């Protein structure tokens, strides 16, 4: 089924960004958020990101105004949406009630995707009386209008056709969906991120490297290389490539890296106030004299360049 109209629920950090992406791809968006001031906040945010979206290859039908804000009342407006992206706060009771209402307000074949970063959808479908098999997670990376990854995580009873429909919709709006086959905390990308961050916290809080140098390590080595080939392909190429490349790399460097892992476990960051203070002081030093808004702009400009080069 072709998707022309998307329902977006919640217009905070993530919902507003999704709305911009959908508008840029020529879709109509029905937007719901109960908060006073949400309509104004959304309009301001969309204006602020539109120039960045225009620099990407967006649809000839893209329109900054092709949306309708309906406040809390999506029930009267979602009968004709073709896809729902939910972005309400990360609270189980709230999502359980909301999904029951979304299930009742939409056509039964419509995919209802939650942006949730941490709650598996099997936990909030218990009150969906119509068709819980069309619910899944469509977890973006912030901000979704720039970052291509969407982790599509079905619950055990999500229909396979719904998973496929969600993946194909995300592809149609220029995203790169991956299928996480089992519900697990943190899905895949955030688990990878946490593994690296924990070691970064440890190294900086122990004073082994400054926050600035730590960031330089990543932006000048792992970051660009992984942006090109990802960690596993990079690993295989480091072992000479070909079908035995990864095996060779593991046999060659594996024993040493396993001993590093033991050392990392022995010195893991333990979140004590002393460690947090040391970490935070080094990051503050890195931020000294820099304006966060400028940094955000520079980051977004660079991301647009990198991602368009990758295409
Ligand atoms: N912030 C991130 O980096 C990030 C990244 C990926 C996924 N997520 C997920 O996206 C979802 C939204 O997170 P966020 O960071 O945008 O939160 P946020 O607090 O910025 O926005 C939540 C919005 O939901 C609205 N809201 C409150 N009650 C509501 C209701 N009953 N129905 C509809 N909307 C309601 C609020 O007014 C607010 O505008 C969460 O599930 C979160 O886990 C967040």
Automatic annotation (TrEMBL):
Record keywords: Oxidoreductase
Pfam families tied to this protein: 3HCDH, 3HCDH_N
All residue ranges annotated as the 3-hydroxyacyl-CoA dehydrogenase NAD binding domain in the record: 5-182
GO-annotated molecular function: L-gulonate 3-dehydrogenase activity; NAD+ binding
Source organism (scientific name): Hypocrea atroviridis (strain ATCC 20476 / IMI 206040)
Entry keyword annotation includes RNA-binding: no
Stretch forming the signal peptide: none
Biological processes per GO annotation: fatty acid metabolic process
PANTHER family, alphabetized: 3-HYDROXYACYL-COA DEHYDROGENASE FAMILY PROTEIN, LAMBDA-CRYSTALLIN HOMOLOG
Domain 3-hydroxyacyl-CoA dehydrogenase C-terminal: 186-252
Keyword Oxidoreductase: yes
Protein name (database record): Hydroxyacyl-CoA dehydrogenase
Family (UniProt): Belongs to the 3-hydroxyacyl-CoA dehydrogenase family.
């Amino acid at each position: 089924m072709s998707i022309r109209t998307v329902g977006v629920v919640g217009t905070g950090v993530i919902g507003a960004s999704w709305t911009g992406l959908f508008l840029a791809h020529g879709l109509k968006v029905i937007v719901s958020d109960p908060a006073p001031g949400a309509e104004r906040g959304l309009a301001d945010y969309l204006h602020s990101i539109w120039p960045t979206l225009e620099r990407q290859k967006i649809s000839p039908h893209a329109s900054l105004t092709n949306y309708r804000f309906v406040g809390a009342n999506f029930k009267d407006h979602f009968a004709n949406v073709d896809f729902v992206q939910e972005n309400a706060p990360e609270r189980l009771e709230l999502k359980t009630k909301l999904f029951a209402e979304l299930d009742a307000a939409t056509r039964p074949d419509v995919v209802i995707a939650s942006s949730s970063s941490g709650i598996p959808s099997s936990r909030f479908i218990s009150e969906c009386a119509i068709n819980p098999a069309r619910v899944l997670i469509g977890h973006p990376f912030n901000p979704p209008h720039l970052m291509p990854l969407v982790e599509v995580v079905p619950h055990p009873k999500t229909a396979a056709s719904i998973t496929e429909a969600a993946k194909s919709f995300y592809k149609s709006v220029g995203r790169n969906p991956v299928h996480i086959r089992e519900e697990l905390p943190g899905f895949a990308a955030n688990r990878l991120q946490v593994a690296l961050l924990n070691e970064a916290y440890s190294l900086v809080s122990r004073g082994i490297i400054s926050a600035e140098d730590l960031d330089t390590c990543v932006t000048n080595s792992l970051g660009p290389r992984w942006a090109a080939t990802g960690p596993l392909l990079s690993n295989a190429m480091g072992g000479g490539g070909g079908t035995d490349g990864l095996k060779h790399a593991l046999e060659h460097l594996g024993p040493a890296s396993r001993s590093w892992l033991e050392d990392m476990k022995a010195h893991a960051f333990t979140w004590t106030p002393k460690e947090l203070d040391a970490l935070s002081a080094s990051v503050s030093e890195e931020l000294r004299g820099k304006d966060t808004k400028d940094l955000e702009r520079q980051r977004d400009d660079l991301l647009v360049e990198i991602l368009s080069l990758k295409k």
